[in-house]
Amino acid sequence: xxxxAITGPESSGKTTLCKSLSEHFKTxxxxxxxxxxxxxKNGSYNxxxxxKIAEGHLKLISNEEKKIMIYDSDFIVLEIxxxxxxxxxxxxxxxxxxxxxxxxxILCKPDIPWEEDxxxxxxxxxxxxxxxxxxxxxxxxxxxxxxxxLHIERLKKSIDKINSFLIF
Length: 168
What we know:
Blueprint (H helix, E strand, L loop, with lengths): L1 E6 L6 H12 L3 E2 L2 H8 L6 H17 L4 E5 L2 H12 L4 H8 L5 E5 L17 H14 L4 E4 L3 H16 L2
Parallel strand pairs: 1-3, 1-4, 2-3, 4-5
């Protein structure tokens, strides 16, 4: 089984890419647990909620067993979110980020227009946050590629990389 995490700042095309990869590889994708969780709380949260989101996301990762699994988001999202919003991260999130739960991370560059959404918070900091994602992926020695540009370009690069895993 190959586990692929789509990561990056808000409104960088993660969900769109997940849906397209899911269609291409005819496999389900696991939705972003934080969105479901926060919608139930009307967008209100504190740092303890991020641990609940991490636990929920971990359960989703553990429950699926297909040849290719695509995940909308990863624990690096929670690490950066927690540090940016609260100045630090929790022990649980730190522990989960350090584990190698994914075979590949696909980092989405925020070079596409911002799409308004009541749960989004960082419209003007996307480029700064993108750099934090790169730093984190490198610090934890995660296997990743960066995708940018038009959706079709992002999709092609992602498909090519995933196919290289399937050859082995």
